[in-house]
Design a protein that fits this description.
Elements: E1 23-24, E2 27-33, E3 42-48, E4 53-54, E5 57-58, E6 63-76, E7 82-85, E8 89-92, E9 98-102, E10 108-114, E11 123-124, H1 130-137
Antiparallel strand pairs: 1-4, 2-3, 3-10, 5-11, 6-7, 6-8, 6-9, 6-10
Organism: Flavobacterium algoritolerans
Pfam family, one: Cupin_2
Protein name: Cupin domain-containing protein
């Protein structure tokens, strides 16, 4: 049966709305495994409503995204936008600026894995502008 409402199937709790200083639109990050000195890995889930996205950011040891539902975008600075969807796995290289979020019409749910947290977790940068996002949407 076709899903005409484009509702996402939640695997994990939605959590609290993320800070407007770090996200544009409605994004709900939830930590699932906190960083510690044993595993040195942080794992969480983010639910992005349609049009929501992270700011540009980087991770000292990189980041892995596992898309669990929906459709969205991922972009590494200076490279073309990538469409990401349920079942995709994305590697964000260490210390490379990137952003990710939902498409304009469909939300996105992703697991994020940040390894080697002893090197640091995240460096946040500026917001992805409406112009950057709309240019990216035209590449669908």
């Amino acid at each position: 049966m076709e899903n005409t409402t484009q509702e996402l199937t939640s695997i994990f709790p939605k959590g609290e709305k993320g800070s407007n200083d770090l996200f544009t639109g409605n994004a709900y990050p939830t930590a699932l495994i906190d960083a510690d000195s044993i595993y040195n890995t942080l794992v969480g889930n983010v639910y992005f409503e349609p049009g929501a996205r992270s700011n540009w950011h980087s991770h000292p040891a990189g980041q892995i995204l596992i898309i669990t539902d929906g459709i969205g975008y991922h972009q590494i600075e200076g490279k073309p936008i990538e469409i990401i969807k349920k079942g995709d796995v994305v590697k964000c290289p260490p210390n490379v600026k990137h952003w990710h979020g939902a498409s304009a019409d469909v939300g996105l749910q992703q697991l994020y894995i940040i390894p080697n947290t002893d090197k640091g977790i995240v460096e946040w940068n500026e917001a992805v502008t409406a112009e950057q996002y709309s240019i990216n949407n035209s590449n669908k």
